[in-house]
C-alpha cells in the first residue's frame, strides 16, 4: 500500500507495446521496493495505446487507458512521461508538449534524439524538465550512465560498439552455419527481430542513430547521419566472412566514434568491420550488444549485454524513471549533460583505416600485377595478398589487406578497380 506521507510521483506511458508492457510489468512488481529506496511513491497513472482492445500481458483499468498521447503528455498530475511509441512525428509532438509543461521525459527513441536532439534538449532546459534516454542505446547495457557519470573524468579517443542486435544475430548465424544473408534474414524476420522498417536495421541507420547519441555524450556535438560513413550488412557475403575468419577476424557491424589526437576533430562511422578474434567485441554474438570505450584516464573498458527485447529495455527505462524520481524528489539534476562543443568533423575522405578488399577477377596473367599497380598509383600500401579459385574456375578471388590509408584513396581505387581486374562483381572493402 502506498504510504500517504511520501511524495507521490505519477508516471504516464505513451506506447504500451513490447517495451511499454515490460516497463509496466516490472515497475508494478518492484515499485514498492523502489519507492522505499527512493522515499517516494511511484504511481503508474496512465498509458496511451493505439488499440485499447488489443490483448496484452499486463492488465490496466479503463481509467488507466487512453488512445490520446496528449492526454498523457498534458496530464497535470503526471510528472514523468515515458515515450515508448517510437517514430519521429507524434512522438516528437508529445515529447515537446510534455517538456514545455516542465515534465521529465524518459525515452527509448534513438531516431527521435538523433534527428531532433538539440531542439528537444533546448525545450527541456526552457521548461525546467529533463530528458532521460538510457534505453536508446544498447538496450539493457547502462552505457548512457557510463558516459554521463561513471567515466565523466575522461576524454574519449575511441568508442566502438556492436549496437544492433538484429544485424549481429544475422552475421553470427551466417558465420556459424555457412548460410547466406537472405536465408538468415528470413529467420530473423520470423523471430520478430527485424524492425518494421527493415532499412533501420539492415542498412545501418538504427546503429547510426545510436552512434550519434554516443558521439554527443562523449564530445558534446551532434553528428548528423549524413556526415557519417554508414553502410549496413546486406552486401556482406559468406566469402567475406570465411576469408575474414582465415585471416583471424570476424565481421561485425561496428559503430565507431573517434577523436583524432592531432587535430581534435571527430568522426563517426557504421560499417561492417573486421574485428580481430582476440578483441573481446569479436566474441559478442547473436542478439547481444557490446561497447568498448577508451578514455584518457581510465584506459579501455568494455560493456556487454542484451541490446534489445522487452526485459532488457525495460530495465533501462526503469533506471531512468528512478533517476528522474530522485531528481524530482531533490529538486535538481544529479547528472549533467555535456555542454555544446563546436568541435569540427573529420571528412569521410580523411578517415584513416587498414582495409580488407576482396575482388573476383579473371584468372589470367597480369591481373594481379595490374591491381597491385593501381593500388600503388593511389599510394595504398598492400600488406598481404591471397588468391583462390572462384566457382567457375576461370575466375579467382583476390584478397588483399592494406596498411593504413585514407577513405579517399580507397574509394578512388575501388572506383577504378573494375577495369584492370575484369571484376565480375562489386569488390568488398571493409576496414
Ligand atoms: N532493432 C534494434 C536492434 C532494436 O536490433 O538492436 C533495439 O534498438
Describe what you observe in this structure.
- With about 425 residues, the chain is of the alpha/beta class.
- It folds into three domains: about 5-140 and about 310-330, NAD(P)-binding Rossmann-like Domain (Rossmann fold, 3-Layer(aba) Sandwich); about 145-305, Dihydrodipicolinate Reductase, domain 2 (2-Layer Sandwich), CATH 3.30.360.10; about 350-430, Alpha-Beta Plaits.
- The chain has 14 helices and 18 strands.
- A six-stranded parallel β-sheet has the order 3-2-1-4-5-6, sandwiched between helices.
- α4 runs parallel beside α9 (about 205-220) and α6 crosses α7 (about 180-190).
- The longest helix has 21 residues, at about 20-40.
- The radius of gyration is 24 Å and the shape is elongated.
- The mean pLDDT is about 95.
- The chain binds L-homoserine.
- L-homoserine binds next to α6.
Amino acid at each position: 500500500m502506498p504510504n500517504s506521507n511520501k511524495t507521490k510521483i505519477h508516471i504516464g506511458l505513451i506506447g504500451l507495446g513490447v517495451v511499454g508492457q515490460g516497463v509496466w510489468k516490472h515497475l508494478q512488481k518492484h515499485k514498492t521496493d523502489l519507492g522505499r529506496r527512493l522515499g517516494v511513491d511511484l504511481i503508474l497513472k496512465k498509458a496511451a495505446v493505439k488499440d485499447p482492445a488489443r490483448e496484452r500481458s499486463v492488465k490496466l483499468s479503463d481509467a488507466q487507458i487512453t488512445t490520446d498521447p496528449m492526454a498523457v503528455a498534458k496530464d497535470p498530475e503526471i510528472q514523468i512521461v515515458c515515450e515508448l511509441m517510437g517514430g519521429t512525428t507524434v512522438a516528437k509532438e508529445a515529447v515537446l508538449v510534455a517538456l514545455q509543461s516542465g515534465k521529465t521525459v524518459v525515452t527509448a527513441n534513438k531516431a527521435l534524439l538523433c534527428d531532433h536532439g538539440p531542439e528537444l534538449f533546448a525545450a527541456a532546459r526552457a521548461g525546467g524538465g529533463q530528458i532521460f534516454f538510457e534505453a536508446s542505446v544498447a538496450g539493457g547495457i547502462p552505457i548512457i550512465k557510463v558516459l554521463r557519470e561513471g567515466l565523466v573524468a575522461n576524454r574519449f579517443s575511441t568508442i566502438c560498439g556492436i549496437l544492433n542486435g538484429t544485424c549481429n544475430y544475422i552475421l553470427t548465424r551466417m558465420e556459424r552455419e555457412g548460410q547466406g544473408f537472405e536465408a538468415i534474414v528470413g529467420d530473423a524476420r520470423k523471430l520478430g527481430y527485424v524492425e518494421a522498417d527493415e532499412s533501420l536495421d539492415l542498412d545501418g541507420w538504427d546503429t547510426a542513430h545510436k552512434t550519434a547519441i554516443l558521439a554527443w555524450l562523449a564530445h558534446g556535438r551532434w553528428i548528423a547521419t549524413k556526415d557519417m560513413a554508414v553502410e549496413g550488412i546486406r552486401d556482406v557475403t559468406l566469402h567475406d566472412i570465411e576469408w575474414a575468419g582465415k585471416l583471424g577476424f570476424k565481421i561485425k557491424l561496428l559503430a565507431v566514434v573517434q577523436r583524432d589526437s592531432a587535430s581534435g576533430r571527430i568522426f563517426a562511422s557504421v560499417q561492417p568491420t573486421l574485428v580481430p578474434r582476440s578483441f573481446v567485441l569479436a566474441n559478442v554474438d547473436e542478439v547481444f550488444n557490446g561497447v568498448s570505450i577508451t578514455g584518457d584516464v581510465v584506459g579501455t573498458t568494455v560493456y556487454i549485454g542484451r541490446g534489445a527485447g522487452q526485459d532488457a529495455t525495460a530495465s533501462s527505462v526503469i533506471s531512468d524513471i528512478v533517476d528522474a524520481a530522485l531528481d524530482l524528489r531533490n529538486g535538481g539534476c544529479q547528472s549533467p549533460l555535456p555542454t555544446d562543443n563546436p568541435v569540427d568533423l573529420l571528412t569521410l575522405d580523411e578517415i584513416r583505416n587498414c582495409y580488407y578488399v576482396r575482388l573476383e577477377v579473371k584468372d589470367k596473367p597480369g591481373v594481379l600485377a595490374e591491381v597491385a599497380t593501381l593500388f600503388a598509383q593511389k599510394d595504398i600500401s598492400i600488406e598481404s595478398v591471397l588468391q583462390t579459385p572462384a566457382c567457375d574456375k576461370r575466375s579467382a578471388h583476390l584478397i588483399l589487406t592494406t596498411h593504413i590509408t585514407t577513405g579517399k584513396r580507397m574509394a578512388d581505387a575501388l572506383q577504378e578497380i573494375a577495369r584492370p581486374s575484369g571484376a565480375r562483381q562489386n569488390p568488398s572493402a571493409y576496414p
